[in-house]
Amino acid sequence: METKQFKAESQRLLELMIHSIYTHKEIFLRELISNASDAIDKLYYKSLTGGAEGLNRDDFEIKLSLDKQNRTIKISDNGIGMTKDELENNLGIIAKSGSLAFKKENELKDGIDIIGQFGVGFYSAFMVSSLVTVKTKPYGGTEAYVWQSEGVDGYTIDTCEKQSHGTEIILKIKESTEEENYDEFLDQYRIQSLVKKYSDYIRYPIKMDMQRQRLKDGSKPDEGESAYESYTETVTLNSMVPLWKKNKNEITEEEYTKFYQEKFYDFTPPIAHIHTRAEGTATYNALLFIPERPPFDYYTRDYEKGLQLFSSGVMIMDKCADLLPDHFSFVKGLVDSEDLSLNISREMLQHDRQLKIIAKSIEKNIKNELSRMLKNEREKYEKFYKSFGVQLKFGVYNDYGAAKDLLSDLLLFYSSSEKKLVTLEEYADRMKEGQKYIYYACGESISRIESMPQTELLKEKGYEILYFTDNVDEFAIRMLMQYKEKPFKSVTDNDLGLDENTENEEIKKQNEENHGLFDFMKEALGGKVKEVRLSQRLKTHPVCLASGGMISLEMEKVLNTMPGEEKAKAERILEINPSHPIFETLKKLYDSDKEKLKKYSALLYDQAMLIAGMPIENPAEFSNEICALMS
Ligand code: ADP
């Protein structure tokens, strides 16, 4: 018989398994049992949807058999089985993990759970076995097949005898060494406790024949060993109640965490869980988790959102995207509902009214949990926000702001006066008397915004400013438009809405007096700015840019990083500090040296651009002009 080679990637993974980078070898059992359970699910599902006749739910089972003499464990199921092709495709290559994006050895050394993360469960059998034999017969098929492998050298496939449909996996357990004890996996009590630990909620009975001792009829315990006889009892090892169907107060925090980590392949415990049962317009159990950290692909296109969907305990979809709105796409978990029909197709599901009601209600559950965390566990919430805050902000912006009211109270921004993250409500509650707007400033970083000239006046007047450091921030806030009827206002905005006072009157007067100078400067800048004028907001800095129209300078920056021919352009206003000596210089030059004034205008404009973090058109020329001034 020909020995076939594993696909290259699978081979590497196998090597890793055999040399066991994973410390908990015992999880092999959990992996094989969960495969068996999936296989039964598939057949049960088929029977419910008319693809298989005469099957009875109560007949499904997973069987474990130990043979100490021959050092084998057998895991059998009466599930759907595999055809020859499936056998080859499913066990000869890594089905889903494909890319093995985690190749970096050092990551593996840290004990990353590659087994869980990449759905390579079956291979874990090689951590404890020197030979793996898989016998399988597909449901409805006539031929049975046997697959065998000792590990990296490859595998063989042949026909074999097998009475009924399903799969049998026989592991030849390795000999124990000085470092590793494999014998434990041949011990019935050890296996019993492993099933309890990892596979208790599997919904089909996991049965094992256990050897027991009992007193012989008419014997007494004090008669010694001969008073006892051995007998075999078939024991169901698992309780079969899924965690989400149990009572909340019967479940420990550890159980939730373990369930999450095993089912959703995360090393870090979840930051929160939501376990609810809803009745009424929609009946369902939901067990949802909020991860602490985003999965490695979360902010990429590869990330697939969704919740597992069960219909009365039978899984009908692994990632039901319709159950989760995009703004909460980070949530993991499952929903089990009696309201959904089993043989509903994916297409039908999308239009299912019941599913929509459930999705709405789940969205509310998540929102409430986040609000609760924000209110009662601020530190935890901030940790969460660090991971997923950007997603919430995208949520405000997307779909023309459809979810903005739901999300606005979950947002946090850094505050100039508090020097920490604050909510919009906190900001609004402490607004100064007569303050018309919620002020914000955009920039790359907090320190960069701290030094923005445009914030000087507002700070002097004691107004709090929110710092926007994410690209999406200003877009989200423009979608929001206002919070508690207070509109948002960028510090670079043309009109800051401050009270008119004598100071402003004075500036207005001076603007009028010098309009010749300012018009000249505007001409000199050749259409780069809409206006040149004196500033109300500058206190120490000589110049800054303000923006007038719909698009701010920050938005221009963000928009222009996106692909596309058309470039966005913010309306620029060059503002000059009336109390800075440069203003006197400009006035003098207007009377004495217009050529020089032209040059200075260009220099001041470039400076303002640099302060705003924008690229200048001709850096070499800028530098030459500065040097010319120096010499
Ligand atoms: P995963 O279970 O994450 O898909 P595995 O490597 O554990 O990855 O299994 C690969 C595939 O082999 C499964 O998806 C399934 O199609 C098939 N398989 C494994 N065990 C069984 C079984 N007991 N019965 C039927 N098919 C199985």
What does this structure look like?
The protein is an alpha+beta fold and 631 residues long. The chain folds into 3 domains: 8-236, Histidine kinase-like ATPase, C-terminal domain (Heat Shock Protein 90, 2-Layer Sandwich); 243-376, Ribosomal Protein S5, domain 2; 492-630, Heat shock protein 90, C-terminal domain (Four Helix Bundle (Hemerythrin (Met), subunit A)), CATH 1.20.120. Helix content is 36%, strand content 21%. It contains 21 helices and 22 strands. It has an 8-stranded mixed β-sheet with strand order 5-4-3-6-2-1-7-8, covered by helices on one side. A hairpin with a 6-residue loop joins strand 3 (129-137) and strand 4. Helix 2 (27-48) crosses helix 6 (188-199) and helix 19 (581-592) packs antiparallel against helix 20 (594-611). It is elongated. Bound molecules: adenosine-5'-diphosphate.
Features:
alpha+beta, Heat Shock Protein 90, elongated, 631 residues, six-stranded mixed sheet, 3 domains, binds adenosine-5'-diphosphate, Ribosomal Protein S5, domain 2, eight-stranded mixed sheet, Four Helix Bundle (Hemerythrin (Met), subunit A)
